[in-house]
Amino acid sequence: MSDKKTTAKVPSSLVNTLTSHTGAINAITFSSQAGTYVLTGSSDRQIHLSRTEPATDPDKKKQSPGPIQKYVAHGYPILDIAVSRDNQTFASVGGDRSVFLWDVASGGSEGTSRRFGSNTNQGHSSRINCVAFTGDGDTVIASGSDDTSVRLWDVKSRDTKPLMVLDEAKDGISSIVVTGNGYEIVAASVDGRVRSYDVRMGRVTVDVFPGSVTSLDVSRDAKTILVGCLDGRIRLMDRGDGTCLRAFPPEEDNAKSYKNTSLRLKSCLAINESLVLSGSEDDGNVRGWDVLSGKSVGDVNVSPSGKVVSVVKWREGSQAQGRQGLWAGGSADGVVKIYSTG
């Protein structure tokens, strides 16, 4: 790894500010591939589709005129969003206890093409915290709930029953990620476990953590995973042998206080997986740590009012496509700010 990566700072060049939501931001997802668009989900029960960068001069208030599309079928706060690789559909979940599948091109309440779990007694019995596409061609949706189960839904089938129910957890499922091959589902639980399910082999492996697990982000090669816990630490784990490669913040780092003891804070890997980004319960800042050294590389104030930034999402840049890396932070005041590496 080059020295340039080890001295990277938290990108702080503001390119867009989204203010269309009236409730706390709980979910942020960039569109697949180019990442030209961003979907945001809020406690106001709406999902908004916006441009990651404003069409007008970004120096003019650095604010876009409003979302391109709104999706308004949810009756409860929206807690997570997942986008299919072809960008044609996305799934959303929340307090409704159903998985909503949307056609991106359609807005309003008419945009929902399917609802999984609402017409069967085999659906989730409590709020759904997380959702992800999996399987060949994103033909399966995985959802994790406070009812302690992960349920798999067949997008192509008209059968209302889940394909499979993974119910090994002893407490609520807080986060789900799917590895690059599309067949391994990793689920975090409030019971302090991270369970990796190899769906094809019918095998599950379990890693134990010292606190409730609330956040997951997996590396592109699926060899490492970023795990956020309510013991106030974020850990980069080797998935091969279960060892902790690095913990953030390091124990000796008292200069920049970081707190996570009660809220679900969604942290992420950034800048070719050389940085870790996360909000904190104490303020409206997003902090960054260097993956190699574990040391703090600065912070960015996303919410001047001090509202917690509970979700941070990264979109990788591409020299071939001529685009910079971006990250978005969503705060409890309903504002989403997007920053670039430029």
Give an account of the 3D structure.
It is a single chain. With 342 residues, the protein is mainly beta. The protein has a single domain (3-340), classed as YVTN repeat-like/Quinoprotein amine dehydrogenase (Methylamine Dehydrogenase, Chain H), CATH 2.130.10. It is built from one helix and 28 strands. It has one helix spanning 3-6, and strands spanning 13-18, 25-30, 37-42, 47-51, 69-71, 78-83, 89-94, 99-103, 112-116, 128-134, 140-145, 150-154, 164-166, 173-178, 184-189, 193-198, 203-208, 213-218, 224-229, 234-238, 244-248, 268-270, 275-279, 285-290, 296-301, 309-315, 326-331, 336-340. The strands form seven sheets. A four-stranded antiparallel beta sheet has the order 1-28-27-26, with no helix packed on it. It has a four-stranded antiparallel beta sheet with strand order 2-3-4-5, with no helix packed on it. Strand 20 and strand 21 form a beta hairpin. The radius of gyration is 19 Å and the shape is globular.
